[in-house]
Amino acid sequence: MAYNETFIAHVWPVIIELMEMYIAPVFNGRLSYNVAKTLIPPLGIYQSQDGGGNNDDHINQNGWKGLVTIRCIDTTLLGAFAKAAEVATALPTMEHSTYDIVVKTQRPITLPIERITQGSVYTAGLVVELGIYPKT
What we know:
The chain is 20% helix and 41% strand. It is an alpha+beta fold. Strands 1, 2, 3, 4, 5 and 6 form a six-stranded mixed beta sheet that branches.
């Protein structure tokens, strides 16, 4: 495929599509971008970890690479880590009809306990490097 000047505008819509298709089922559909839509655990939140990623272009070939954090929130720390393990299992299955998807899990993350009206919630997660490249 020839170099496409509009490719970069398609990156985050592709990421959102992939997250909805492959990661949202881990949380029974309770997956949000940046800010939680609900506080009913278990739930997941994903966001850019590096300000939106970067071009990873090659000669006559578009590409994008970036870090995405997927936070897993549950009522117990072990529950949060169990969801992170489910996410880790789902990530390598991600496929797209138009783009090649490259996934590399970089590191785990934990966050402090959060106290909310309903009680405490625990967060564990993964920082993942995603690569998106038009199929050739």
